[in-house]
């Protein structure tokens, strides 16, 4: 029998209807492909590396933590794990890239609490929703910010730093690792509480800000403990105070801000791992278990501790709750300080 018009009319109608139905369904099937991959594919995909996106330049404390985790995570999961530095816009470039990624577990974000808890309060336009666009996977580490000064500043404690700045109204500045980050909010809160006149200078990341602090171009900044400990080891930076409720093991001789009379600046500061929204539960659990194993390694715990942090994982649900709680606490701080959302 010849094809085409020589088929019986009823058969031709049924065949045409099936073809039209398949054509109409093709776009929908294409859209479902990523979701099906995320839900059903084995993880990790053989031969496909895992990428940990970091919103800071290479060389800073966050980058260093991500790299030691990546090394051991690759060993646990049996695949290559790479760190991808995407600095800029107060970590929002990195976060938005991960939010757009395929939710197959191969693109992760290692971010400070500021990415999810502060940016939405301090920027008018944030290109992601901290609760709808990400899958919380695990806490990475806890660690406070510290108040550091350039070694050229003649101050042995916070009171002397305040006196130094007050004697030079409008002539000093403080650095941060980005507008709207915890470093900026702490700096602004400190300036207002101390009643001093100092200009904010934002940088693309902690390492860039630390370089200018070490060079004496800016007199002080609130830095991550990990970055500050490294900078202080050079002798070009001194750490005056810890922004936490209690002293930390890495800096047992450095008093807290509260001990020096500056209370209310001890909000949570941590880093953690997120993936894009829509990740399959088995993938999230596999990553969570692997990260817990890595963060419990003595080598990793020592690395974090030497930098002023305490490494430690938690469950995805607990991390989601921590993110929400920190978001609410920092929102209250931003309103108290009176920061206007940056455009």
Task: Please provide a written account of the structure.
It contains eleven helices and eleven strands. It has helices at 9-40, 61-77, 92-99, 113-122, 158-166, 182-194, 206-214, 225-232, 281-295, 298-306, 316-337, and strands at residues 50-54, 81-85, 107-112, 134-142, 145-150, 172-176, 198-202, 220-224, 237-243, 270-276, 310-311. The strands form two sheets. Strands 2-1-3-10-4-11 form a six-stranded mixed beta sheet, with helices on both faces. α2 (61-77) links the parallel β1 and β2. The longest helix is centred in the N-terminal third of the chain and has 32 residues, at 9-40.
Provide the descriptors you would attach to this structure in a database record.
single chain, 343 residues, alpha/beta, six-stranded mixed beta sheet, five-stranded mixed beta sheet, 11 helices, 18% strand, globular, disordered N terminus
Work out the helix count.
11
Q: Record the strand order, biggest sheet.
A: 2-1-3-10-4-11
Order of helices and strands: HEHEHEHEEHEHEHEHEEHHEH
Count of strand segments? 11
Question: Low-confidence parts lasting 5 or more residues at pLDDT below 50?
Answer: 1-12, 14-40
DSSP helix fraction: 40-55%
Q: Supply the helix-strand structural class.
A: alpha/beta
Q: Based on CA inertia axes, which overall geometry fits?
A: globular
What is the residue-mean pLDDT, rounded to a whole number? 87
Kindly provide the radius of gyration, computed on alpha-carbon positions and rounded to a whole number of angstroms. Answer: 25 Å
The proportion of residues in beta strands is 15-25%
**Biggest sheet layout:** 6 strands, mixed
Report how far apart the termini are: 71 Å
């Amino acid at each position: 029998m010849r094809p085409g018009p020589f088929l019986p009319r009823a058969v031709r109608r049924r065949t045409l209807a099936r073809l039209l139905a398949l054509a109409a369904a093709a776009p929908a099937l294409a859209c479902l492909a990523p979701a099906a991959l995320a839900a059903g594919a084995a993880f990790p995909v053989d031969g496909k590396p895992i990428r940990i996106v970091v919103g800071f330049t290479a060389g800073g404390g966050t980058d260093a933590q991500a790299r030691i985790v990546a090394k051991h995570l690759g060993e646990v999961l049996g695949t290559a794990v790479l760190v991808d530095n995407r600095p800029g816009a107060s970590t929002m470039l990195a976060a938005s890239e991960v939010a757009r990624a395929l939710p197959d577990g191969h693109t992760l974000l290692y971010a400070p609490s500021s990415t999810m808890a502060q940016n939405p309060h301090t920027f008018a336009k944030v290109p992601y929703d901290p609760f709808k666009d990400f899958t919380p996977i695990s806490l990475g580490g806890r660690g406070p910010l510290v108040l550091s000064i350039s070694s050229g500043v003649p101050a042995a404690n916070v009171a002397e730093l305040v006196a130094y700045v007050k004697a030079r109204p409008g002539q000093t500045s403080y650095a941060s690792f980005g507008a709207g980050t915890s470093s900026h909010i702490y700096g602004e809160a400190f300036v207002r509480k101390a009643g001093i006149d100092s200009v904010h200078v934002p940088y693309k990341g902690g390492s860039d800000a630390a370089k200018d602090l070490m060079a004496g171009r800016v007199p002080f900044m609130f830095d991550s403990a990990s970055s500050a400990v490294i900078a202080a080891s050079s002798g070009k930076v001194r750490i005056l105070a810890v922004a936490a409720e209690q002293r930390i093991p890495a800096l047992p001789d450095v008093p807290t801000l509260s001990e020096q009379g500056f209370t209310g600046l001890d909000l949570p500061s941590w880093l953690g791992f997120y993936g894009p929204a829509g990740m399959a539960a088995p993938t999230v659990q596999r990553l969570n278990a692997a990260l817990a194993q890595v963060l419990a390694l003595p080598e990793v715990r020592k690395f974090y501790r030497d930098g002023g942090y305490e490494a430690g994982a938690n469950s995805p649900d607990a991390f989601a709750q921590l993110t929400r709680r920190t978001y609410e606490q920092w929102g209250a701080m931003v309103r108290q300080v009176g920061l206007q959302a940056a455009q």
